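S1.2 Input.
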Amino acid sequence: MERKIYNPIQRDSVTFLKTHAETNGEYTLVEVELADGGGVGLHYHKTYAEKFNCISGQVQVQLGKDVTVLHAGESATASPNINHLFKNRSGVPSRFTVELRPASRGFEQSLQIGYGLASDGLCKKNGFPKDKLALAWLFEISESNLPGWMSIFEFILRKQAKKAKEKGIDKQLTERYVKF
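S1.3 Output.
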């Protein structure tokens, strides 16, 4: 089964190397091919660490206030509750792995659903789903949290995620897009 997903808006792909099911929940491992200009904004997770290991090109990783540019063979880990982001501003695509410990089924699902929505034209130019309830639910299942003053929006997102579940949007999206 093909375990590579592509996001036409962000122009990046993710290949699932190991899922929660294959590691008994120990870790999730994905390989990311990130286009120049791509990345994910500042956020944090309470329940898992994220280790970034550069394979080729460069990936910029921010951990707290420290910014590091990783080159092939270098890695950096965002421990739980540490604000972090990653991006590629090198002028060429980069490849790196991301390992979550422990594994996160919600993270795995959120990537498949988010990339599926983007492929179906159901996302805005910034890559966020057009459906606000879907966005809130994906934010919740990926166990992402907003840092600092932006955390005031989390209450609204959690409320919207609950509404998404009440309307069955979670089941619809999972059925349509989650393949593994």
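S1.4 Remarks. The chain has two domains: 4-101, 106-177.
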